[in-house]
Amino acid sequence: MNKRTGADGGEERGGRPAKPMRGRAGRMKNGRGSGRAGSGAVRLWGRHAVEAALKNPDRSHRKLWATREGVESLDGELPADFPVEWAQPADLARLVARDAPHQGLVLECEPLDDMFLADVLDNDPLRPVIVLDQVTDPHNVGAIMRSAAAFDACAIVTQDRHAPPESGTLAKSASGALEILPWVRVVNLARALEEIAEAGYWRIGLDGEADATLGESLPTGPVALVLGAEGDGMRHNITQHCDAIAKLPISHAMESLNVSNAAAIALYAAATRATD
């Protein structure tokens, strides 16, 4: 389900915004890499990521490398004609990122299709939108996806650039959430925030220097939670496109939280607020 958008407008082609191009990595050296195979394919590994991809009807699969134990750990049986190449753990280790915990399963598949922002904004006050401004670590983005899926967010929005691509590393950190959480990738994040506002969402940017807390700033209606990269935080232009800036009320003994931890807390706060 995760797809990208032309929320920035883009050039019109046939009366529809053009989809921004997302670069594909080239063939991995010695078979290793972050989970982006040649010819535009993606390699996923680990039981949760592979199992979720196999169950996703929107995912096209190419091939599964696996140990017998790995396949036995899956929930459900593979179709009889599914392309499986049996391998030893050491062979699988050569197909994935160094020291990646593949758990006896490596799946090569097609990237998920694109999605437009308007297709995922359901205006449900119980389902927030997560917007990430130049958060580039795939482990963090994957962890945020996992929390967003757990708290029933309607989508995660990132830039097409300055954000990690779909990959095995991200999918492993997302623990299956990559397959069920809509991921909208935009060229112009500020313009996407404008579209989110037009859809009726209150946009709250998280910043540790804010005066108000998140609890004080949360509305009863639909909300978009905007988080910036660790260290730099949100860019000025993105801050200007937020309706409110808020902080998490953490102890002065700690300067900040990891962005994925901050996202999980913000999602919990949004999920437990009064919406009547």
Automatic annotation (TrEMBL):
Span list, region Disordered: 1-39
Residues annotated as domain RNA 2-O ribose methyltransferase substrate binding: 43-115
Any Gene Ontology biological process: RNA processing
Keywords assigned: Methyltransferase, Transferase
GO cellular component terms, A-Z: cytosol
Biased composition annotated in UniProt, kind: Basic residues: 19-30
Record flagged with keyword DNA repair: no
One GO MF term: RNA methyltransferase activity
A Pfam family matched in the record: SpoU_methylase
Signal peptide: none
UniProt keyword Transferase, yes or no: yes
PANTHER family the record matches: 23S RRNA (GUANOSINE-2'-O-)-METHYLTRANSFERASE RLMB
Name under which the protein is recorded: 23S rRNA (Guanosine(2251)-2'-O)-methyltransferase RlmB
Taxonomic source organism: Novosphingobium silvae
